[in-house]
Write a structure and sequence with these properties.
Chain lengths: 287, 760
């Protein structure tokens, strides 16, 4: 690893300014779980590392209407947060499936969102939940719907100097169930072959589906919100219908052949994951 | 019992190579070839040398300029240049070494070394390497070990055949002949402790600190290479699994230290280990002739081992497994053909029993196919054919302590073989069980000779110091040797201390490999302890003015046998001080030669002892995704007397934990241009605690005649038996016999699809 200058600013504005001024020479780290590997392997060779860890006010979870999550909140805190578990269970479940407890303690929600790795779990869950990303720079703050946040693998709409400061997740309506599933070869630290999140809302009077969303990870360059899920609206979410919807969702995916397998297999896995996630979400919505 | 160093290791108080600091040491970074096969046209290291903080750069020019430096090393197969001379033979081949004041500068300077490569056509696998007119990896052959036989004009660096009976007659007598081809790709050992060396050349003397598994052969090789005495010191080693059994860094870094004129340290990155030593690609064709009743009458196993760009380690380990390639079965007519083949992959080395593991996978999977075909029970066909005491092995050895069947029964019982498998109402979960049996050799010399020695000395502090060459690589060797010495002397562990693997301080030892140490070093320790005990009794007798036969060794000192501890004895510290001259003794372990069997005949010894083992596994296959999961597994091995049962259990457990990776998902992958795609743990999946199945270790501990207190070795077999059992369990679950590891989900799903398409 090449030596670098290490800067630990105390405020977002200051961090953003350093990043803007130093341009490509600066590299931002949140929890460092991916960033340190990138440094060590020489994927990035910055002159200076800007560690967000010292910025005050970016840590914590507030459940007040929407779930407001500070960028520096560890994934582990999200996994264990009472509010998130009770009403945003899908998100807490996705967090609980990230790698292992060491990684979950290090990785932050802001880092998970900003990293933009197509295989990661958190962005998939946030896509199903319709979250928005709060980004800030010296010029101010803006909110970007998660569906518009990603441009490609490891590529986001963040402008130079712009930092993710938090994520807002709207509260799902009553009678909603959610589930997140992933498929990994080998140990849970390995990048998943694919993952999927589902969110199902039922009309308690009729038992029919009043809302259905599904999202898929490692299913294309960015998280894929499966349009097919809406096919369940107004219907009874029977296993047969869910299987059809999941098959259609998998067709919307555009996975890539890589070390984790060929395209046809990833599509099959995505179908199974979406199907099982929708079934599980439906059961949870009924409970 | 836990190992002697367990508490210190858990508390972080044990120093490994990475912790070693030698005053004045500089840091090395290796410049590696990006191409698998390339002529080296020119090397320009001027910019690197000019960088402030750079001490020197070692290239072929510096090696050639030094008349006291040989160019080519390898103590089994001499074919590896210190740094590439004319060409690079694998991606990551060592082209130059940059030495600098600190590691970061060395790294930066290494990028400034400008190498002009002319790409050559590469042979990336055995098939390509054996094709007519294939590019040659080496133009000449330099085998050192006498049993190695290259085939001139080819990429075959070793070919050998063994057999027994009359193979043609055997197949003619068979009712059915089955033929299968199996294969497995390379994987990496991924030992926690990365390869590391500190070398110092000072006052005409080499000192090398390294985490290598063969300090003595390495020392002799250093002496030959540099024409001066060499001392090799090996601290605690955090695992090797075969990746450290031969030299790949030590000679090179010594050359760099000589050039630098100061100690030089080199620690590989995890990524570099993927280009240093790997488990080779394996392929075989196995033909087995059976009678209608399941009796095996003939077997031929022809196997190909991809040794990579250098045969420094891989050729001989391939050859060694000739002895076990037909399995633990009584087969009257057998033939084994071994081909070790050069390619442009990184060099190969053993991997926890390799390639016995792949042989076992092949003959065990085929045996399940035969059983299914003949409508026989899978345990029954094994009971019928497994070897027994007094059988003659394919090598001509007389087998004793051949408790192969007992291993199988114990492993099968441990997973509840006969209990019904849980049902899967929706048909989405397929379940099955499988078993596998193996036989493993230990390294054994062709003629009778001493393989290693041990020394025990009573120190002035009253502690017995056990001096052994065995490398403490995490297997618990210090503990077992202390237990053996303690029992043989009659003293407790508190009165013992172990000094290991420093060629200047301990007697010679051949290597810490092939499950050999408990038996071989254990015997030397028993002998040393016996001699020392006599000397101590004699010295004490003189001092106490009593007959030596009225005295005994206890934990506290030498006491009169009838004395009941009320004085009249002498403590060890006092004895040592009063005797003045050192109280010490050496022992050795002589092996090889021939065996005079109870039947009155004399037999050859291809292996000092044979270890038998079995694994039974239960798997679950997700029929929708193709994912196989090991639900539970058990392994049983013949250990002889279990000296430290806890170490045996953890060795077996570690074997399963490690080998389930290559069985289910691990593999190194190259693209079409010969570039390795996953030389980093980010993209290379490894087993972890979370992938460990429910696991039951078992041992079959009938004392082994000749072993120290009846013990023999078993360090590898826990791993060796895993793939066969899992392949067979998946076969049982899905009805599909796989011929290739790893059992990746898409491979299984593809096979299930094909099966259901065929059924329609
Ligand atoms: C072994 C391992 C296994 C893993 N497995 C999984 C898994 O199964 N599922 C999963 O979802 N995740 C997994 N992860 C986590 C994931 O890949 C990332 O490591 C993690 O999400 C990054 O979070 P971080 O806070 O550590 O970010 P860092 O590593 O600090 O940064 C990552 C990137 O994001 C940028 N960045 C960080 N914070 C911000 C911010 N606030 N604003 C703008 N840019 C920022 C950095 O500049 C950098 O480019 C795994 C990680 C490891 C190391």
């Amino acid at each position: 690893m090449r030596p670098f200058e290490y800067i630990r600013p105390g405020a977002v504005g200051e961090a953003s300014q350093i990043l803007a001024e130093r341009g490509d020479g600066a590299f931002l780290i949140g929890g460092g779980s991916a960033a340190v590997v990138m440094l060590r392997l020489g994927v990035v060779r910055p002159e200076c590392v800007v560690d967000l860890g010292g910025v005050a006010g970016l840590r914590g979870i507030e459940a007040n209407g929407a779930l407001r999550i500070g960028a520096l909140t560890p994934i582990r805190a999200l996994e264990l947060d009472g509010g998130a578990r009770s009403r945003w269970g899908l998100l807490a479940e996705a967090a609980s499936q990230v790698a292992n407890v060491r990684v979950r303690n290090a990785a932050t929600v802001g880092g998970a969102v900003a990293y933009g790795e197509p295989q990661t779990d958190t962005p998939t869950a946030l896509t199903a939940l319709g979250a928005s990303v709060r980004a800030a720079s010296a010029k101010g703050e803006r909110a970007v719907p998660i569906g518009e946040f990603y441009l490609g693998p490891y590529e986001t709409v963040l402008a130079p100097g712009e930092i993710v400061v938090g994520v807002d997740v709207p509260e799902p309506p009553p009678h909603t169930g959610g589930a997140h599933l992933k498929f990994t070869i080998g140990s849970p630290e390995n990048k998943p072959v694919a993952n999927a999140s589902a969110l199902v809302t039922l009309d308690p009077a009729s038992g029919k589906c009043a809302g259905a969303r599904a999202a898929m990870g490692a299913a294309g360059p960015t998280p894929v919100a499966a349009q097919a899920a809406e096919g369940l609206l107004g219907e009874f979410p029977s296993p047969e219908r869910i299987a059809e919807v999941a098959a259609a969702a998998a067709e919307e995916a555009d996975p890539m052949e890589d070390l984790r397998g060929p395209v046809w297999h990833k599509r099959r896995v995505l179908k199974v994951l979406v199907e099982r996630a929708l079934l599980c979400a439906t059961q949870r919505a009924q409970a | 019992m836990p190992t002697l160093e367990a508490a210190d290791k858990a508390a972080g108080r044990v120093a490994y190579m990475g912790d070693l600091v030698i005053p004045g040491m500089a840091h090395a970074k290796i410049v590696r070839s990006p191409l698998p096969h390339a002529r080296i046209v020119a090397i320009d290291a001027e910019a690197a040398r000019a960088l402030p903080g750079v001490v020197c750069v070692l290239t072929r020019d510096e090696v050639r300029a030094d008349p006291d430096m040989e160019e080519i090393y390898g103590f089994v197969y001499r074919d590896a240049p210190l740094v590439a001379i004319d060409k690079a033979r694998h991606q990551g081949d060592i082209v130059a070494v940059v030495v600098a004041e600190d590691a970061a500068t060395a790294e930066e300077a290494a990028e400034l070394v400008d190498v002009d490569y002319e790409e050559l056509p590469a042979v990336m696998n055995v098939r390509e390497a054996l094709a007519d007119g294939a590019p040659r990896v080496h133009e000449e052959f330099f085998p050192i070990a006498p049993e190695l036989r290259p085939q001139a004009g080819t990429n075959i660096c070793h070919h050998a055949t063994i057999g027994c009976g009359d193979i043609a007659r055997g197949f003619a007598e068979a009712d059915f002949v089955y033929e299968d081809e199996f294969s497995a790709p390379p994987v990496q050992h991924c030992a926690l402790d990365l390869h590391a060396v500190v070398a110092q050349v000072e006052d005409g003397q080499i000192t090398v600190w390294t985490n290598c598994q063969s300090p003595f052969p390495l020392g002799r090789e250093l002496e030959r290479m540099f024409k001066m005495p060499a001392r090799v010191i090996v601290p605690y080693v955090g695992g090797g699994f075969g990746s450290k059994s031969r030299d790949r860094l030590e000679c090179v870094i010594t050359a760099a230290a000589k050039l630098a004129g100061r100690p030089v340290r080199c620690v590989l990155s995890q990524e570099e280990t993927f280009m240093t030593f790997i488990r080779p690609a394996y392929a075989n064709r196995i033909q087995t002739g059976v009678k209608r009743d399941g009796t095996i009458v003939a077997r031929r196993n022809t196997f190909y081992v991809d040794v990579g760009g250098y045969a420094i380690s891989g050729a001989r380990s391939a050859n060694n497994t000739l002895k076990v390639a037909t399995g633990p079965y009584r087969i009257p007519h057998a033939e084994v053909n071994c081909y070790a083949v050069y390619t442009n992959k990184p060099p190969s080395s053993p991997y926890r029993g390799l390639p016995t593991t792949q042989h076992t996978m092949a003959y065990e999977a085929q045996l399940d196919r035969i059983a299914r075909d003949l409508g026989m029970d899978r345990l029954e066909i094994r009971r019928k054919n497994l070897v027994r005491d007094g059988d003659t092995h394919v090598t001509g050895d007389y087998l004793r302590s051949a408790h192969a069947r007992e291993c199988m029964e114990k492993a099968a019982a441990a997973i509840g073989w006969d209990a019904p498998l849980p049902a899967s109402p929706d048909g989405k979960t397929l379940r099955g069980r499988g078993v596998s049996c193996t036989i493993k050799y230990t390294l054994t010399p062709a003629r009778q000779m001493s393989e290693n020695g041990a020394e025990i000395a009573l120190g002035q502090d009253g502690v017995f110091e056990i001096r052994i060459g065995t490398v403490n690589i995490g297997q618990g060797s210090d503990t077992v040797m202390a237990q053996i010495a303690g029992d043989a002397l009659g003293v407790g562990l508190d009165a013992l201390r172990v000094v290991h693997s420093d060629t200047a301080r301990v007697p010679v030892d051949s290597s810490t490999t092939a499950s050999r140490s408990t038996y071989h070093m254990g015997r030397a320790v028993v002998e040393a302890a016996g001699v020392l005990k006599g000397r101590i009794l004699e010295a004490a007798a003189q001092l106490l003015e009593r007959g030596a036969d009225s005295l005994a060794l206890t934990s506290e000192g030498v006491e009169p046998e009838d004395g009941g501890g009320d004085g009249g004895g002498v403590s060890y510290a006092e004895l040592a001080r009063r005797v003045g001259s050192p109280l010490a003794a050496q022992g050795e372990c002589i092996v090889g030669g021939t065996y005079d069997a109870p039947d009155g005949k004399t037999y050859p010894i291809a292996s000092t002892f044979w270890t038998f083992a079995s694994c039974a596994a239960e798997v679950e296959v997700d029929a929708e995704t193709g994912q196989a999961r090991i639900v539970q597994a058990a392994a049983a091995a013949t250990t002889g007397t279990a000296i430290n049962p806890r170490s045996i259990e953890t060795q077996l457990e570690g074997g399963v934990g490690q080998e389930l990776g290559p069985t289910l998902f691990e593999q190194m992958t190259w693209d079409e241009s010969g570039q390795l795609l996953n030389a980093a743990l980010l993209d290379y999946p490894l087993p972890t605690m979370e992938t460990m199945p429910r696991y039951e270790p078992r041992y079959v501990d009938h004392p082994f005649e000749g072993g120290p207190f009846g013990a023999k070795g078993m360090g590898e077999v826990g791993a060796v038996v895993v793939p066969g059992a899992v392949l067979n369990a998946v076969y049982d679950a899905t009805g599909v016999l796989f011929h290739e590891m790893p059992l990746l989900p898409h491979k299984i799903l593809e096979a299930l699809d094909a099966k259901s398409a065929a059924a329609q």
